[in-house]
Specification:
This protein is α+β, with helices and mostly antiparallel strands. The chain has three domains: 59 residues, no CATH class; 66 residues, Immunoglobulin-like; 112 residues. 36% of the residues lie in helices and 30% in strands. The protein is built from four helices and 14 strands. The chain has a four-stranded antiparallel beta sheet, with no helix packed on it. The longest helix has 45 residues. It is elongated and about 105 Å long. The N terminus is likely disordered.
């Protein structure tokens, strides 16, 4: 609806504003000297009417064809109630279903998000004189997509399912375990290289017919190097196990503890769900017939 404002001169006893229907309006009022009619938000139309004080005047307002179109952006979504953000030269936000009537122009980035659903993103080229309607069907997030992400980076699946704190924990644990493995592997390489050097020295002493004291010394050095290499290898295996453990826990958490689905996985009538009991944890497999 177009709005028109009737602005009265100061000589009138009472000033009022009237809202008229588009294109045609009949306004009844008493005036003393005159009245100005102007179009709000468009080209100003002025029309002065002079009359004797106290006379009732019927004013018929017929507005000529003017360009009153104002562009708008309407965003709807399934499900409704999603957060909408339009970002470009300006930033506007709303909740679906929503309509932005700001005469936006140019390139804007549309972002529609809702808890439990994947974020919808799209670039829009807006015309301030045209109406733009965007109907968005949000795709639900799933535990299998979360698990696939955690397969590549531990914690990514938790970020995907809006569990930021848990995701950060898994990511930090994974990073720490990988760094620990790198140091453990480097230490093992050094210890193993030292063992090979001691083994070569012992073999050389045997081949050259070294004295008994020399052979015993070389043997002691070889045994010490072997023990160090063995210990370093054990540490490296523990580090490898830590990396695998964090990765595996992240996968299982993303699969069985996906938010709002109670940890159950159902495939063709078979349901696998975690079972919590005192001092015990397991899984329950059930089938529906």
């Amino acid at each position: 609806m177009a709005n028109y404002r009737l602005s009265f001169e100061d000589s009138l006893f009472c000033c009022q504003n009237y809202t008229c229907l588009p294109l045609l309006a009949a306004v009844y009022f008493r005036l003393s000297e005159g009245v100005d009619i102007e179009l709000i938000g468009g080209e100003v139309l002025l029309k002065r009417i002079l009359a004797t004080a106290g006379v009732v005047v019927v004013l018929i307002v017929s507005v000529p064809a003017l360009s009153l179109a104002q562009g708008s952006v309407t965003v709807t979504s399934a499900p409704g109630g999603a957060q909408v953000e339009l970002k470009g030269d300006a930033v506007v936000t709303g909740i679906t279903p929503t309509t932005f009537r700001f005469g936006l122009a140019g390139k804007y980035r549309l972002r529609v998000s809702a808890p439990g659903y994947e974020t919808y993103k799209r670039d829009l080229l807006l015309d301030p004189a045209k109406e733009t309607v965007v109907d968005v069907t949000l795709v639900p997030k799933t535990r299998f997509k979360a698990m696939a992400r955690s397969l590549f980076i531990p914690g990514w699946g938790q970020y995907y399912s809006d569990q930021k704190a848990k995701g950060l924990t898994f990511t930090l644990l994974a990073a720490a375990s990988v760094v620990g493995y790198v140091f453990a592997d480097n230490d093992f390489d050094q210890k193993f290289a030292h063992f090979n050097d001691r083994l070569a020295a012992f073999d050389n002493a045997v081949k050259t017919g070294a004295s008994r004291a020399t052979l015993e010394l070389r043997k002691q050095e070889l045994d010490a190097a072997q023990n160090d290499a063995y210990d370093a290898e054990n540490v490296r295996r523990i580090a490898i196990g830590s990396v695998i453990g964090v990765w595996g826990l992240s996968l299982l958490d993303a699969l069985f503890f996906f938010p709002e689905q109670h940890g159950a996985v159902t495939v063709k009538g078979l349901t696998l769900s975690p079972d919590y009991r005192s001092q015990r944890f397991g899984f329950t497999l059930s089938a529906s017939f």
